[in-house]
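Methods — Computational structure assignment.
A single polypeptide chain was analysed. Its primary sequence is given first, followed by the predicted tertiary structure written as structure tokens.
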Amino acid sequence: MARPAGQGEQTKRHIAEKAKQIFERKGYAATSMEDIREYSQISKGSIYYHFTSKEELFLYAVEKASESWREEWEKQAEQLATAREKLYLLARFYASDMQNPISKIVPEYMGTHNIEEMVQEKMLHLVQPEYDVFLHIVEEGVRCNEFVSDISSEDLAYILYSTLSGISITQFLGYEEKKFYQLYEHAIDVFLNGVTKE
């Protein structure tokens, strides 16, 4: 008997949501497909019908979280007039996202897993939309003469993206949440103004 239209996608999303909750609680390495089966109350056969491996399931969950982040970002960013304002909003978004439990699991996944070429491409696919946000803001700033630099927009976007992504390591150094948010804001200050006297 055929499934009702959309039921397969509903099941897939249900599995991914339950798996995400387990990953957030136990971490990537400690989570098994049996944990996911038990918590989701979905048969192993159905889980493997939708996802060939734990890795594929994890990446799907991260992708869905990334899509939600991007939708919320676009909704708030479109209300701002300048690229400068958007950079500070982006810093707050990044600081907030680093408090998201699934975001804290990604470094564990990256660091403890022997990433195959196909998976590496998938990770690049996940990262690209985030980088594009940075690039669009920088390009807007250059186009509107808010930003002036001899460095290309692409390189400026990579520098800023790497800076904000790198700050996430401080979450493991015991920084309180308020200080964590301030670091992201200060990163934008430094990016826009530098640290040396004119």
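Note: The longest helix spans residues 117-143.
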